[in-house]
Amino acid sequence: MLWYTLKRLLQGVITVWFIATATFIGMHNVPGDPLSGERATNAAIRANLEARYGLDRPVTEQYFIYMRNMLRGDFGISYTQQNREVNDIIREHFPVSATLGVLAVLFAALGGILFGALTALFRNRLPDYIIMFLVILGISVPSFVFAALGQLSLVNINSVLGFSVLPVAGWGSVSHMLLPALVLGLGTMAYMTRLMRSSMLEVMSSDYIRTAKAKGLSPTRIFSRHQLRNAALPVITVLGPAIAAITTGGFVVELVFAIPGLGRYFVQAVQQLDYTVIMGTTVFYGAFLVFMVILVDLVYGWIDPRVRLQ
Amino acid sequence: MEKNPIIRRLRPEDLAALSGQSSAPVLVRPSRSYWQDAWGRLKANKRALVSLYIIIGLLVFTFIGPLVWQVDPALQDIDQISVAPGADRGAIVVDAFEAWDGQAPAPGFAAGDGLSLAGQPTTQSVKLQWQDMAGADSYLVYRNNFVPDNVNTLGLPLMQISDPSQRFYEDRLDLRPGTYYYSVAALDAFDQRTGDYQTVVADVIRVITVNEVRTRNLVDDPDALRPGDEVRLSWHPLGTDYLGRDMLARLMAGARVSLFIGLLAPLFFVAFGVIYGATSGFVGGRLDSVMMRFADFVVALPFLLFMILFQVVFGIGPGESGIIPMLVALIILSWPATARLVRGQILQIREEAYVSAARLLGASQNYLILRHMIPNTLGVILVTLTFAVPAAIFTEAFLSFIGMGVAPPTASWGSMCNEGLKTMLTHPHELIFPAAMISITVLAFNLLGDGLRDALDAKMRSTE
Amino acid sequence: MSANVSNETLLSVDNLHVEFATYGGIVQAVRGVSFSVETGQTLAIVGESGCGKSVSMQAVMGLIPMPPGRIRQGSAKLRGQDFLGKTHIDGKAICGDEIGMIFQDPMSSLNPTMRIGDQIAETLEVHRGYSRSQAFARAIELLELVKIPEAEKRARQYPFEFSGGMLQRAMIAMAIACKPSVLIADEPTTALDVTIQAQILDLLKEIQQETGMAIILITHDLAVVARMADKVAVMYAGQIVESASVDDLFYKSAHPYTLGLKLAMPSNRSDAANQLQPIPGSPPDLFSPPAGCAYCARCPWAMQVCQGDNPPPFVVGDRHYARCWLQHPQNERDIDGLYRVPAEQVADGPSGSAKGSTV
Question: How far B440 CA sits from the closest chain A CA (Å)?
């Protein structure tokens, strides 16, 4: 297990290194030198950048400077906002995205497990049909459409009721978070519901559930002690991809709901070609996602005894 | 000991031996090939079948649609901007515009006590006139879509009229059919509002000049038109967008882009994945482990992040649509899943008893590949392909939505959603139509994929 | 409780009918099965796969998912009290408390993510109201009872850390935790190595002798029957076609199907006469069971009557019954190897239908 953990972590480090390198190479191949463009004509910014990155030196040397800065956790200064460190941007905006993301993952996982179990228990009956219809919708509708439609219907609900049920956009209180988090988690929730349903059906028809019945356990005890736990285990394995989906989905949801998260900032940086911010956030997001996936795998191994002890 | 209860007496012929018995099992059902069987199962799956029809309908919409609906998707209809489907498209013919000098209001529009209209408000112009307000040194003219409750809700003025003797105004700014609330507020000599203001309601009707009718070819004989006649503006069955472009035509153009990426990218990366995975699985050994390590590595890259990065680096040059870079990026980042799957299948089939049996019977390597490997992986590949299409369409839509996909003016469903978002609150149809197209397409391919998987999955066949 | 023979009928099942609704129609899996078992006795139910032997026991235990399953008629009595469709009688649970059950594949029959000890303890917590630690301590004792070495350590392990034989022992420990009066063993040794099989069977016997519980052993292995059973019921296509004491069944087989099973069983003599003879054909489709004898299509001695009329259970000896028209007193054919009722035992009467009797 320890060996496995180390191996995974090493793999993760190499992946992040590749991401950083690819980002560097990519940014240096953008048609036209980023510094000669109209973006950074300000002499102060230019001097600052040249000193920092050794832009007058050969590319290989620049690469080593870049990597050294990265290793020290220094992502540089924004091109478009003078004197704003990328680190500050991340420090300021990432907690917002993380809050939203954690809430969305919670929505998705709990909702998925609950609805998935429900559909399996009511297999081929009305609740199953209704939820599975919604699930198919959830899988087929992009998150930005959910975001827009959610906002649109909230505007209408607020105007019909004459008071604000939930704020339509912005950030600050828990009420600001609810709709964006729900919208963000919806697609993943749909996937997890589907997975949980098939996993639950498999568990329900398994031999050990028959054994549990033969032991005379009540249906509630069988559900809580045997079915729910075993059926939910495979759902945990997709948490890694789910976190990735929710993180990137956060880009558009933050955009639509005007949430000052790192995702919105990243998209804006991309649209404004703010190279240092793009490079910094890409590497940051890349490292975050890679290590989240590893973390989920390790947690799964720790929870499932079959994996833990092998 | 227990005795038998009364047993019925048998007839002698009852005891005769039964002849002509055959214990050989009788084949009842006709034998069908794998693909016939799969097709039969797919046909029995109503949802999959409906999805198949929807996909065929989509292809017709995309490729035959533009032949039927020959409207240029880039053409702007400035009389009908952000028009909802089914909106009234009548317009009254009027004379060409002539500037108003503030004199001679139209009959029936005599100057009233305060602010009043001086003529029928039209999309050509709205004429306002008002009486002197006490202490006014100049006036501010406001236009709102709602009744202003007090002087503070007036918002930004349209115009400041500094000559207090000029008590009229003609509004020509971007007028649409509908109701406007015009207000005039008085300012004192120090440009401070006196608090005195008046409001009038203007129900603006749509008008068109003969010249415009002629250039847009709306009627056969434009010279026969007289002011006051009604003409019908060009028809937009699904309305127009914020630039007055026909939604239906744009949806068709967008479908070409979205389906181009959505179909072509999966075709390429699945093909590459199949070749890569099959090679790796066949050759085995060191090459296999190196190839798979590399595939694992590509899988570990955060997909959308790299798509965005790729688009930043190669995507958006001036005058480029950004379609080809997206296609390339999709292919580069998406192949490993297929490769892993195919390799797994090949390794599994290689170990199957029937392959060993064939090998023992002297089958050549080529025969094994042609007769066993390919037919047995084809189903899996087909299912992968079907599920890859909605994923690619999703990716395209996502990137275009955040402005990192196809560049304007090229239309794709995602970029249309992006544009529709801006006018969502007032004109939701501009968002809902492209969003519905994405959702229906993805839904259809997902359900077809489900159906195909159920139809082709050999394991499910045996547990029927 | 001392071993053996109070001759009290402990569990009796009467005229049980079970069917399943499937896409293809209704499958009549069990068609009027009756049997009984006494304290300390072992009843073996034998038959090929799909004959309804497991289904009838699962129906009795209430383990059949309904729908699609349905018990159309019949009764199951424990000490005279009908419990079919109930979970408790006299405040005692049927499943796990009065009747224990073990299954064919111990690997898949235990929850893979739960410790063995906890799974055993669970029964005691539910039926005996033990605390968690009490129950776990008892679980360790039970594991010792079924001869699992290092029981204390083993109780904290998971099923995948056990071998197949060990798992089956754990299953037995679980099933006997509440000292049930009946143990249903559904093919307990099928998934195990032959050497392990013998150990498990010996263990069952030993526990039976200590506790006096009745065992209902479901198997398709006649060798296991010969080793374990006091009486035997042979099932075919949802019905019991022959039932007898174990000696009678082997030495006085009165049904062609039993005879066929015996001939298909390997023996340690290797002369030509003892070559394995498979039974040709396959069992009938239970979507529409034949009107007559279900074995008719495969029976080498089938008669005209077999095709149209299902034979009643003929009494062929002391507690020995066979559903076969060959046992009819009017039939004069003697078949090599097939036991026939001595004529003097048959009361020949006027025409009428034989009443099904409890086996």
Answer: 7
Interface-testing mutation among B301, B312, B440, with chain A (most A C-beta atoms within 10 A): B312
| DSSP letter assigned to residue B214 | H
Report the chain B residue with the minimal C-alpha distance to residue C351. B8
pTM passes above 0.90? no
User: How deeply is B344 buried, as exposed, middle or buried, from its count of CB atoms within 10 A (0-12, 13-18, 19+)?
Assistant: middle
For B320-376, how does the pLDDT look when each residue is reduced to its tens digit (9 = 90+)? Answer: 677 888 888 889 889 998 898 888 888 888 888 888 888 888 888 888 888 888 778
CB contact under 8 A, C303 and B5: no
pLDDT in tens, A6-61: 888 888 888 888 888 888 887 777 654 455 444 445 666 666 666 666 666 777 87
Partners of B24 on chain C (C-beta within 8 Å) are 280-281
Question: Is B92-209 CATH 2.60.40.10?
Answer: yes
Count chain A–chain C contacts defined by CB atoms under 8 A.
76
CA distance linking residue B411 with residue A97, whole number of Å: 30
What single letter denotes the amino acid at residue A309? L
Chain B hits for A282, Cβ within 8 Å: 305, 308-309
d(CA B334, CA C215): 59
User: Is the Cα dihedral C7, C11, C14, C19 positive or negative?
Assistant: negative
What DSSP letter does each residue of B261-272 carry, written as one string? HHHHHHHHHHHH
Strand order in the sheet with B207-209: B207-209, B90-94, B230-232
Do B183 and B199 contact (CB within 8 A), yes or no? yes
Q: What is the ipTM of this complex?
A: 0.81
Q: Find the largest Cα–Cα distance for chain B.
A: 132
Starting at the edge strand found earlier in the chain, the sheet holding B178-187 runs: B159-161, B138-144, B178-187, B193-204
Kindly report the CA angle at B292 between B287 and B295, in degrees rounded to 5?
130
Domain extent listing, chain B: 51-70+243-460, 92-209
Give the closest of C93, C113, C175 to A305, CB-based. C113
Which of chain A's residues have a Cβ under 8 Å away from the Cβ of C105?
A: 207
Contact A215 C174 (CB under 8 A): yes
CA of B17, closest CA in chain A: separation in Å? 45
Compare CB distances from C95 to A213, A230, A309 and report the shortest one's residue: A213
Does C171 sit within 8 Å of A216, measured CB to CB?
no
Could you give the C-alpha distances from C231 to C227, C250, C259, in angstroms and in order? Answer: 11, 11, 17
CB–CB contact A207 C105 (8 Å) = yes
B51-70+243-460 CATH pick, 1.10.3720.10, 1.10.287.370, 3.30.450.40, 2.60.40.10: 1.10.3720.10
Chain C residue with Cα closest to B5: C354
